[in-house]
Amino acid sequence: MPVTMSAFGLRIVPVILLCLWGAASTDAFAGSGHSAEPMPLRFASLKRDKVNVRVGPGTQYPIRWIYQRKGLPVEIIAAFGNWRRIRGSDSAEGWVHAALLSARRTALAAPWSTVSVDLRSRPSGRAAVAARLQPRVLVRVKSCDRLWCIVDVPGHDVEGYVRQEKLWGVYPDELIGGSAWRSKRAWHSNLARTRMATSVQSGSTFPGPMALSYPKEASGPKGHSTFGSHPML
């Protein structure tokens, strides 16, 4: 029987005073005569383990929250110079430097849901379930054909097919990659490696798919004063 992969939800714990200052800073940016550049919406991922999300496009703006996990998907919705306005899976928005973003595609399993997402051995609703991903489990996206995506789980030897509509980090009508879809023989060979998997939650070994858990993904700007005299991007 397939077991469940779990992930801690994204936590954003803003500091009240900084939020009040942030609101004022955002208004100042909006009224400064400058405006963000419109650009086509697209997804990216975080390049570093710690990424400051600011209320405006510059280090002079306060930090609204800090992402604490490399690879999390974000949606780029606007630009201002070298800064990008991003939207997270919880719809929260802020600014990060473009150097902190990667074009590598990742996604979260149904962060809007309370129901687990099936990771299947083939692109079929009748295929065997390799694992069940609880909402917000992070996956790396290898390819998508507008119906199914081939994904794997960072740090764990498990791969499979997920319905594209169940992922946040790819658009429902988006085509990604393609070579992986022409390598099914190699894919099924890799899938065999998941037959015996270690449970990260319990530390036990059992036949069948993995059970996973993940660390905290984000926090408020706690410890901001420890960054030194030169603020982090």
UniProtKB/TrEMBL annotation:
Signal sequence interval, chain numbering: 1-30
Segments of this protein annotated with the region Disordered: 210-233
InterPro entries: DUF1058
Keyword Acyltransferase: no
Entry keyword set: Signal
Domain of life of the source: Bacteria
Name of this chain's protein: SH3-like domain-containing protein
Gene source species: Microvirga splendida
